[in-house]
User: Which sequence fits this backbone?
């Protein structure tokens, strides 16, 4: 009993340690990665397979905010923008697909075998535990060297919330107004359809010499012939799915994230990929 009490803060008398951290050595610079998060998702190279991604970062990760995100990877991109992070992608058979490194706005990726040691103690639908370490000490000064450990529960499926009516209701109308302003090139109207944060990003570049060219590129990414597929709302957040065409007339699917600000629905972000 005494022994159990002594270690209760760490193991809760037989419970599992929920933790993850590590150290990144990159070209002689040492970065402590004190925060970690893991989640299961489809393999980006084979959607019929699953991988588990373990993210280590030098910035706090709000797991509660990610719980109901349908696209947790995309949500993390926003949450950890500008951070130093390492993504360890582990396949269902326990092999390492790759290791991705983000240093601010730069990106690098390593794959293959022989350059690391993975000690995987658990890898299932509920939890992932183990350690990952680079083998070549010289990489600390000339390259990238990883020393990572993890013991993390995996989140279950996200709760999307309440289904929206056909066409998306008022949220669908707000998104179509966003598209209309974008196609028209009405920056003032467009800003009014976006969340405050996203609008501020656009406004910050409005007087740039190359703003016209930049805005033209943004316009070219606008969804053509949008067709509402489905949508859900939960509190002040909502997600809508559309099918449509890109600038080349190819079929695409688009996921639109919206947020309610001051009682009005605004476009927060949008991701588009081939398909439909």
Assistant:
């Amino acid at each position: 009993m005494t022994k159990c009490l002594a270690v209760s803060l760490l193991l809760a008398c037989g419970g599992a340690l929920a933790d993850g951290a590590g150290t990144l050595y990159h070209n002689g610079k040492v970065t402590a990665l004190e925060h970690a998060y893991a989640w299961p998702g489809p393999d980006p190279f084979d959607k019929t397979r699953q991988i588990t991604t373990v993210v280590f970062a030098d910035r706090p990760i709000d797991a509660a905010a990610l719980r109901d995100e349908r696209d947790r990877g995309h949500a993390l991109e926003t949450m950890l923008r500008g951070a130093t992070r390492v993504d360890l992608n582990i396949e269902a058979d326990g092999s390492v697909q790759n290791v991705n490194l983000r240093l601010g706005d730069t990106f690098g990726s390593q794959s293959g075998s022989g350059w690391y040691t993975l000690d995987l103690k658990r890898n299932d639908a509920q939890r992932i535990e183990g350690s990952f370490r680079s083998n070549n000490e010289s990489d600390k000064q000339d390259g990238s060297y990883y020393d990572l450990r993890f013991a993390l529960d995996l989140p279950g499926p996200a709760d999307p919330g309440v289904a929206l009516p056909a066409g998306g209701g008022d949220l669908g109308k707000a998104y179509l107004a966003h598209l209309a302003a974008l196609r028209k090139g009405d920056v003032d109207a467009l800003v009014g359809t976006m969340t405050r944060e996203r609008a501020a990003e656009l406004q910050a570049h409005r007087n740039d010499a190359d703003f016209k060219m930049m805005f033209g590129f943004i316009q070219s990414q606008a969804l053509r012939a949008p067709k509402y597929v489905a949508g859900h709302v939960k509190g002040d957040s909502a997600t809508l799915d559309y099918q449509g065409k890109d600038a080349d007339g190819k079929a695409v699917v688009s996921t639109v994230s919206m947020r309610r600000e001051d009682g009005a629905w605004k476009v927060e972000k949008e991701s588009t990929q081939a398909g439909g």
Notes: The first helix runs from residue 2 to 6. The chain has eight helices and 15 strands. Residues 126 and 154 are 5 Å apart (CA to CA). Residues 1-17 have pLDDT under 50 and may be disordered.
